[in-house]
Design brief:
2 copies of one chain form a homodimer.
Chain A lengths: L5 E6 L4 H10 L2 E6 L1 E2 L2 E2 L1 H11 L10 E5 L13 H14 L2 E5 L31 E6 L11 E4 L5 H5 L2 H6 L4 H12 L3 H26 L5 E2 L7 E5 L6 H12 L4 E2 L13 E5 L5 H24 L1
Parallel strand pairs in A: 1-2, 1-5, 5-6, 6-7
Antiparallel strand pairs in A: 3-4, 7-8, 9-10, 10-12, 11-12
Helix pairs in contact in A: 2-3, 7-9, 8-9
Chain lengths: 307, 307
């Protein structure tokens, strides 16, 4: 019995729970893509898409590329305009759908990006525009995590498919009652100052966290300074495993983080990485925690070297 | 390319939007089952299950039977204890999962059924108990339609599968914020009187609707008196099509209903049926509407006979 409906391309490190959710819908073959500091590796994307392309008999698209182009989870990367333009060009050339998890987009702490969404590179005025990008937004990251109200921006040609979706029709919409509350929050001008307050707090926390890491992280470790979002993705030296450091760090400092392997599509990858979130703790606690984490890491690296 | 993951058995008339939702998840072959006045036809279920059974290589179950055993949508049927016991016996014998949409169960207007859920017939103390029934509950029918908070009761062996579900994990639970509100409504003893009020209103409406139909529905039409729930399912004489009567009824009386074919799994079926809901309008408006509908139906049947 063959059980095969298409391909799901994802970044080699990605938001794994989204991936788990998508696995429910159909039996997709998941293909990881190389990730650079400025976004997905376009050459890797083209090679892998090209060699797998087929004509689907019962689906609009033969493949989806799921990504988080703006303040990527877990890596914090902001996809560059060149990469965004390249993804759109490839999606048109090979006719696959790009699903962008655009949930951190307004949380920029550096210069505001010219376009905060990859979708804006799929320009409707282009001669070869068909519509290949879906943008998934959420209030959960900017109003409160329990809100779980979001929205989808889709090309016109995909609207009928969503309109006829049983999941959307059966519920009536995405979370009716809370959507009403969120709508009222905006009408009453209560959401706007709340979002501004969260934005300022996140920015302050991220900048403080980066400052501590720049001065205290052992120089054998590396990280790409995030310009927005929730996450910092730290690379350990080769001889250190994140899972072992997590054990050590929790035992000595009661500090936890998520190890890189949790975000890796391929078994055994990501062991040299871990992710810090700046969203949960107040600045003081966060700075103290990262400072102690850096100290613990120094001690741990030393202990590994000596064994 | 073969695209095949298993079977979904459903009643020949069923809640179609649920079916649409399930179609998203995988490519299932849908098999309709004969429905009698006391529930699904057990013989038809056994024959169809037996001839399709296979060993799934990548799924816990090779098939699901989706049904609404208590105050069925659209037919209003209450599955009898004999039918419930029979379904459980067959689900054990052929190892398929029974998913019960138990959303109207407490809305009984006649004697309270001894067991309001088919799940209670899958008795844990049975020697051959494994756990074959899922019961899906909802606050949407008893607190308010926009609530969209529900719960699942599952056999212990299925809990790990749900715990590891990406859809549940990604959202954190079924609708966090509204679930908190509903929880508080119960703690503050506000939900209980509200539900009691709705229950009394629905019961009054259903009994009034039935009384009007018993005295005014043309005697060439038939319906099974519902003992609970939202719906009354009316059968027209053979020469009358529900879709044509709907047009007539809307034009002359501005009354609408849902035609039977909307609930039919098979193309072309259900044309002799239509569904009335007692849930939306107050008793007076409902009684007036059904009364006018019966008059319109008499006139329409007459006009059809004469053409």
């Amino acid at each position: 019995m063959i059980d095969f409906n298409g391909y799901l391309f994802v970044d080699e490190y990605t938001y794994m729970i989204a991936l788990d959710s998508m696995k429910h819908f159909t039996s997709l073959t998941i293909v990881p893509l190389k990730l650079n500091d400025d976004g997905v590796d376009l050459n890797d994307l083209e090679v892998k898409v090209k060699e797998r392309r087929f004509k689907s008999q019962n689906k609009e698209f033969w493949a989806i590329y799921y990504t988080i182009p703006t303040y990527h989870n877990p890596t914090g990367i902001l996809f560059s305009p060149t990469v965004c333009r390249g993804i759109v060009a490839l999606s048109r050339k090979y006719d696959f759908l790009v699903v962008c998890d655009d949930v951190y987009n307004i949380l920029h702490y550096d210069n505001k990006p010219q376009h905060s969404r990859l979708m804006s590179y799929d320009t409707r005025t282009d001669a070869d525009y068909v519509g290949h990008v879906i943008s998934n937004g959420s209030f959960s990251k900017i109003i409160g995590p329990g809100v779980r109200v979001g929205w989808l921006e889709v090309p016109p040609r995909l609207k009928p498919q969503l309109r006829h979706s049983g999941i959307i029709n059966s519920g009536g919409c995405f979370n009716n009652y809370t959507a009403g509350i969120v709508g009222s929050l905006f009408e009453l001008q209560l959401a706007q100052p709340h979002i501004a307050r969260l934005y300022a707090a996140y920015k302050e926390r991220m900048l403080a966290a980066i400052a501590v890491l720049k001065s205290e992280l052992p120089n054998t470790c590396r990280f790409v300074t995030p310009s927005g979002g929730y996450f910092i993705w730290i690379r350990l030296p080769d001889q250190v495993k994140a899972s072992e450091f997590l054990e050590y760090c929790f035992e000595h400092e009661k500090i936890t983080f998520i190890v890189g392997s949790r975000f890796a599509v391929e078994e055994g990858k990501g062991q040299q990485f871990f992710r810090i979130s700046i969203a949960f703790h107040k600045k003081e606690k966060l700075v103290d925690g990262i400072s102690r984490l850096c100290l613990a890491l120094k001690a741990f690296i030393k202990s590994v070297k000596h064994t």
